[in-house]
Structures are given as C-alpha cells and as structure tokens.
Amino acid sequence: MNKTYCTDRLVLKQLDSNDxxxxxxxxIRNKEFLKxxxxxxxxxxxxxxxxxxxxxxxxxxxxxxxxxxFWIFKKGDEENIxxxxxxxxxxxxxxxxxxxxxxxxxxxxxKGYLGEALKKAVHVMFSEYYLHRIEAPVMPKxxxxxxxxxxxxxxxxxxxxxxxxxxxxxxxxxxxxxxxPAHE
Length: 184
Ligand SMILES: CC(C)(COP(=O)(O)OP(=O)(O)OC[C@H]1O[C@@H](n2cnc3c(N)ncnc32)[C@H](O)[C@@H]1OP(=O)(O)O)[C@@H](O)C(=O)NCCC(=O)NCCS
Hints:
- This protein is of the alpha+beta class.
- The protein has one domain (4-132): Aminopeptidase, CATH 3.40.630.30.
- It has helices at 20-29, 31-35, 48-64, 113-127, 143-151; strands at 4-6, 10-13, 68-74, 83-91, 97-104, 133-138, 155-166, 169-179.
- The chain has an eight-stranded mixed β-sheet with strand order 1-2-3-4-5-6-8-7, with helices on both faces.
- The protein starts with a strand and ends in a 5-residue tail after the last strand.
- The chain binds coenzyme A.
C-alpha cells in the first residue's frame, strides 16, 4: 500500500481516508461530467463521511487482494486529483483477471493524461501483480474511452447485453480486453 508510481507528467497514488477531502472535491467538480458514465449517486455520496467510508473500503479491498485504485495527480500538484484508474473484481486461481475503470477531471481531457496513466498502471498490474487479463467494459457511445483502449492495444471481444446499470439504466457494453504479453 502507499506505493507511488510516476510517469513523465503524472503521479499515481493509492489514497486512504485521510485524503477524503481531495476525493470529495474531485467528485463535486465532476458531478455533471461523470453522470452519463457512472452509477447513479445518492446525494450523500457528495459528503466527506461517504468518501471517507469509500476510501476505507478501498483500503480493505486492496488488503484482501480484490482491487487496486490509483488516483492521478500532475507532477508538482498533489493537492488536486485529475483522475483515477481502478482495477476491480480481481480474480486469482485459474482466472488472474480484473475489471478496469477510469475517469479524468473534465478540464484535463484531451491532453493524453489518461492514456499515460493507464499505460503505467497496466504495466504495474501485469509485472507486479501478475494478472493475465484486464477487461474494460465500455458503452458503445463512449468513443473517447474506446479510443484510449484502442491506443493501448485492447481488443474488442463483443457486446454484453444490459451489462451494467449506468445513470439509472441497464446499458449494453462492449468488452475490451488486454492480455499480459509475458503469458503469450
Ligand atoms: C474516458 C476519458 C478518460 C477519456 O479522456 P481523454 O482525455 O480522451 O483521454 P486521454 O487523457 O488519454 O487523452 C487522449 C486525447 O488527448 C490528445 N492528446 C493531446 N495531447 C496529447 C499528448 N501529449 N499525448 C497523448 N495524447 C494527447 C489525444 O490526441 C487524444 O485525443 P483524441 O481522442 O481526440 O485523438 C474521459 O473522457 C472521461 O473521464 N470520461 C468520463 C468517464 C468515463 O467515461 N470513463 C470510462 C468509462 S468506460
């Protein structure tokens, strides 16, 4: 826990409940931007209490080996979160797989930050956590997200009907995947 990774322009960090204010600030700033792409949020999601609890759950989930979440900062400004990359539902045994999620701050899109962070995070998941497969479900209309995945070599494995409830509605998702090159 608390291992930090750097890229040319970014710092990737795991956070804990002491960082709840930073996370709350990120979600409040991006409430409208994220609405179309994420789970419907109750009003109490936008409170310090709720974000502290979520970060505590993230730490527990990391300790159990179930998930890892990297928050993204620009180098030289570790007081403002600009995004997040998460690897959820980590399955070991004969799967060694996980589900990928990510998001940016609306004002930091179009600069290549997510691609830069994701490239590093994927490398970490393959080389340090020895995952075999990373799956990214994306709604067909989310072209920005699809472009990010294509640039990193993710492959389209087809559509899953009504896979996730996004902004209150069950939505079809394309399943994109990337395999650990060391396992080929
Ligand atoms: C999905 C999301 C992260 C994509 O953001 P993004 O800014 O397009 O992705 P990146 O940060 O990798 O930036 C890539 C863009 O920056 C451009 N760019 C500018 N400067 C660049 C640089 N120095 N290096 C690389 N790319 C650069 C690229 O050309 C590309 O633009 P294009 O797609 O129009 O060709 C963002 O739209 C988002 O947070 N959406 C809401 C949440 C969401 O949908 N999450 C995913 C659910 S599946």
